[in-house]
């Protein structure tokens, strides 16, 4: 049992954690929720003794009556991996690309017990079997790049549990994964905790994930635990106003709007096919062909909000690029407001569509200042004389203060960047916006705010959007119609509510079943606070 | 630590550049006059670094030599940047196409020849002179910059901000200039200082074998060559130009490293 008492952390004098108390009981899952910057990850790093430079921790982190905060680095090194294991969010970077998976898992055992390599590899084999990577299909000699994201996360878990630690810390372990993979990883973690008698500290911003697996939950806000207790009663009562605000934001649905449509739909995709040639297996063999988009047809009417759902690798992103004219098609055609989309389409036509990309870190030139970044689409329409005012107004719409204009993008958090990306997409008032996982990285409260903005623009400008996501709860909240894509094909389409309530295609059924949900009967006894806690009112 | 490196680099490079500039107007003694009576003097109050086998003042020689070395290296790097960077940008913009292939195979062709040997061949064919040394060194800088530019530009072309620029209707040339070039500039500056110091070494090498700047223009390489027969009786005559080469190259490398950090907005905060 690990208990945290009065844990406070300051970084260069600035407090980041204050008086955090947590009890991590063997065989139990403790969830830690809160928005980004609330101190969730910092708590984990303090427990495992990996605080960033310049950080000072006070208080107690007791393991077997020993305060870990007092231990010297050497002793902590011995504890890490042996008594406390950790899993990170990004399975791509958590593994060493140059080591095979057997050696990576065995490393912990060699390190802590001086086990010889053969014995350590035998244990590694058993551990990999344990996390669902059985022997014949997944030999120890595989390298990380030969595995999918979910399989990599399994290897990371095998590494973390190789030495049967007392405490496993999982920091957003499923945020980077598809819903079905997420469900499998959560099942695995829950089962491991039960059978191995570990304590698990599960850090996430997703309340539904917590509701599904955590026995206890602690809610964090600006460095403090504002509320903690057994999950179900806590979720039912929502005693603290911050908890209520989180829930309200997570369940927030923007106002429904309907927009009169004209004769030409804004987007028509007819039988689109996009193929790639893969490297040939041998010198004279034919090139294998990958059909990323396989005969897709879809229509988005003016002012309509359409969702496109599917797991990574299903062809969503390729289709997005094709609609933007960045990828040539092998067959079929794409019409934007009745005119064909090509790489050489006119500026006038191109200005009708804009995009918000998934990765808020790669979406901006790090050398440009925000005003220039947001103004870039003016290239299509000609830069108006009052462009700086327009940029300020666009930033204001997404809740970014105007003094941001003269700053570089690296000074902003992921959520702020995503809002700046939305400001950039909307500044020339396109008719269609493609949102590629655009709100997945946002905290629930910011997400609610952005969704309201989109709904408002839909009403005021007749904006249509194609919302690409694997997060069914957001798709449900903001789209009228949904398309489900699997392996390059649209397998099901229809009204969002109907499809997500009663999916017909087995793939959709799998997706819906895998999506974590807060049980419908966990309604708070007292009504949740007014929505204004979380998001500004809609009227404007 | 980083500040120390920056300061040291700037000081060393600054001394070399200042000496070269100053030598246009003033040197302690003339470098063309011969004073056999005062030959091979050790460092002393009259000649701080001593004199060579013709009795010429070594400080003055090193100052004028700096001019030759820096001018040759600077123009050679200029040729490499002026031709290589656009080639690299074009190759990256047309990645996978025939333009890319032509440019990169042309690069491979130049790379396939040992550079100093070809430089010797060029200067031997065109006649030994500082201008021909510049040409010979400069040509071999072109593929270096083309490759570095292309290699650094390729991953940028897959980034979302380049896609965003395409969605904003910008063409490949414009994106290359507005987005790609500024983001590879820091690498090019580092590569530029490395090539600059290599240029100084190459110039010294060419003059050492008599194919660089011709007498009476002093040059560090030839000073070394002329001093080597007397290294046992007057070691300072070899040590002085040798140290000049080492310290200038060291200064350039330190400065290049620090400049890269200073030019990167992500790292800028940490430099100060």
TrEMBL record, chain B:
It comes from the Bacteria. PROSITE patterns: ABC_TM1 (PS50928). Its main location: membrane. It is found in: Cell membrane. Keywords: Cell membrane, Membrane, Transmembrane, Transmembrane helix, Transport. GO terms for biological process: transmembrane transport. One of its GO terms (cellular component) is plasma membrane. Residues 66-256 form the ABC transmembrane type-1 domain. It is a multi-pass membrane protein. The chain crosses the membrane at residues 70-94, 106-127, 180-202, 233-256. Belongs to the binding-protein-dependent transport system permease family. This is Peptide ABC transporter permease.
């Amino acid at each position: 049992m690990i208990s945290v008492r009065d844990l406070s952390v300051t970084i260069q004098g600035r407090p980041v954690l204050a008086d955090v108390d947590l009890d991590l009981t063997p065989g139990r899952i403790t969830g830690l929720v809160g928005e980004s910057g609330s101190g969730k990850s910092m708590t984990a790093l303090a427990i495992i003794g990996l605080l960033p430079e310049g950080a000072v921790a006070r208080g107690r982190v007791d393991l077997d009556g020993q305060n870990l905060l007092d231990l010297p680095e050497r002793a902590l090194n011995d504890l890490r991996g042996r008594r406390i294991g950790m899993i990170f969010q990004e399975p791509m970077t958590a593994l060493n690309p140059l080591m095979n998976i057997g050696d990576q898992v065995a490393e912990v055992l060699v390190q802590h017990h001086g086990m010889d390599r053969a014995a350590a590899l035998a244990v590694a084999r058993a551990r990999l079997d344990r996390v669902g990577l059985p022997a014949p299909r997944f030999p120890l000699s595989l390298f990380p790049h030969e595995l999918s994201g979910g399989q990599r996360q399994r290897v990371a878990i095998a590494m973390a549990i190789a030495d049967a630690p007392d405490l496993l810390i999982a920091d957003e372990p499923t945020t980077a994964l598809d819903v079905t993979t997420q469900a499998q990883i959560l099942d695995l973690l829950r089962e491991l905790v039960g059978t191995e008698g570990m304590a698990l500290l599960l850090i996430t911003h997703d309340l539904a994930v917590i509701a599904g697996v955590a026995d206890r939950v602690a809610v964090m806000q600006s460095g403090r635990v504002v509320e903690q207790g057994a999950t179900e009663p806590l979720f039912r009562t929502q005693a603290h106003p911050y908890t209520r605000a989180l829930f309200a934001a997570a369940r927030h649905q923007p106002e429904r709007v309907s927009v009169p449509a004209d004769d030409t739909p804004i987007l028509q995709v007819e039988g689109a096919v996009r193929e790639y040639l893969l490297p040939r297996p041998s010198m004279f063999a034919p090139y294998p062909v990958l059909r990323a988009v396989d005969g897709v047809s879809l229509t988005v009417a003016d002012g309509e909000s359409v969702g496109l759902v599917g797991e990574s690798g299903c062809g969503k992103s390729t289709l997005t690029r094709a609609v933007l004219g960045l990828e040539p098609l092998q067959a079929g055609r794409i019409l934007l407001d009745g005119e064909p989309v090509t790489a050489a389409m006119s500026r006038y036509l191109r200005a009708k569509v804009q995009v918000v990309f998934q990765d808020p870190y790669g979406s901006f030139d790090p050398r440009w200042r925000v005003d220039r970044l947001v103004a870039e689409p003016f290239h299509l329409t000609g830069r108006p004389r009052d462009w700086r005012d327009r940029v300020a107004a666009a930033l204001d719409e997404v809740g970014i203060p105007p003094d941001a204009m003269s700053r570089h993008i690296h000074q902003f958090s992921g959520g702020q960047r995503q809002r700046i990306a939305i400001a950039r997409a909307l500044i020339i008032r396109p008719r269609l916006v493609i949102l590629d996982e655009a709100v997945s990285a946002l905290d629930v409260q910011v997400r609610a705010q952005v969704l309201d903005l989109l709904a408002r623009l839909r009403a005021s400008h007749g904006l249509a959007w194609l919302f690409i996501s694997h997060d069914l709860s957001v798709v449900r909240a903001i789209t009228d119609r949904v398309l489900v894509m699997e392996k390059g094909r649209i397998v099901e389409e229809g009204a969002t509510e109907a499809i997500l309530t009663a999916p017909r295609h087995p793939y959709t059924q799998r997706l819906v079943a895998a999506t974590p949900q807060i049980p419908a009967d966990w309604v708070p006894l007292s009504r949740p606070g007014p929505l204004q806690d979380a998001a500004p009112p809609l009227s404007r | 630590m980083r500040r120390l490196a920056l300061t040291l680099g700037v000081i060393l490079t600054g001394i070399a550049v200042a000496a070269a500039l100053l030598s246009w107007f003033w040197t302690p003694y003339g470098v063309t006059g011969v004073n056999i009576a005062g030959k091979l003097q050790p460092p002393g109050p009259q000649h701080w670094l001593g004199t060579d086998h013709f009795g010429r003042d070594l400080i003055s020689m090193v100052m004028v030599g700096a001019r030759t070395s820096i001018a040759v290296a600077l123009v050679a790097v200029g040729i490499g940047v002026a031709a290589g960077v656009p080639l690299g940008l074009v190759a990256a913009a047309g990645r996978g196409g025939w333009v890319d292939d032509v440019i990169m195979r042309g690069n491979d062709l130049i790379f396939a020849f040992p550079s100093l040997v070809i430089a010797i061949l060029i200067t031997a064919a065109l006649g030994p002179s500082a201008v021909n040394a510049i040409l010979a060194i400069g040509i071999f800088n072109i593929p270096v910059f083309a490759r570095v530019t292309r290699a650094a530009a390729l991953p940028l072309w897959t980034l979302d901000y380049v896609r965003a620029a395409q969605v904003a209707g910008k063409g490949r040339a414009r994106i290359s200039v507005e987005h790609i070039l500024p983001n590879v500039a820091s690498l090019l500056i580092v590569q530029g200082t490395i090539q600059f110091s290599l240029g100084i070494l190459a110039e010294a090498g060419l003059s050492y074998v008599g194919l660089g700047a011709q007498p009476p223009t002093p040059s560090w390489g030839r000073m070394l060559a002329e001093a080597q027969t007397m290294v046992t009786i007057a070691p300072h005559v070899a040590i002085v130009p040798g140290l000049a080469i080492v310290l200038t190259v060291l200064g350039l490398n330190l400065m290049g490293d620090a400049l890269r950090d200073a030019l990167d907005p992500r790292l800028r905060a940490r430099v100060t």
